[in-house]
Amino acid sequence: MMYRLIADVAMVAHFAFLAYLVVGGFLAWRWRRTIWAHLAAVAWGLLSVTIGVECPLTLLEDWGRRHAGEAGLPASGFIDHYIEGVIYPEEYTNLVRLGVAVLVLFSYAGYLLRRQ
What we know:
By secondary structure, the protein is mostly helical. The protein is 74% helix and 0% strand. The longest helix has 29 residues, at 2-30. 16% of the residues are buried.
């Protein structure tokens, strides 16, 4: 039971991180100091997408599921399991990534404009 809880908490934290990655720049319009946390999240996201750095939340969820006697995450990872092909078709992955990049850049432009 504890392993399942660990896996579920890791999954929820992963979804929360992805949501923060998308909208965190807009939150910095109101709470200015959070821009540094968002810059770190964006850097991590870029590393994950460009060079395939393994996410610790994926590893933790997989570990928890396996120890709970469940099937772990597929080798393709969290995004492929929960998002691609579920929320949007897999062939739109690059378009979704571009959309996220545009949102982040727009939020940073707004952040800079509001700073003046």
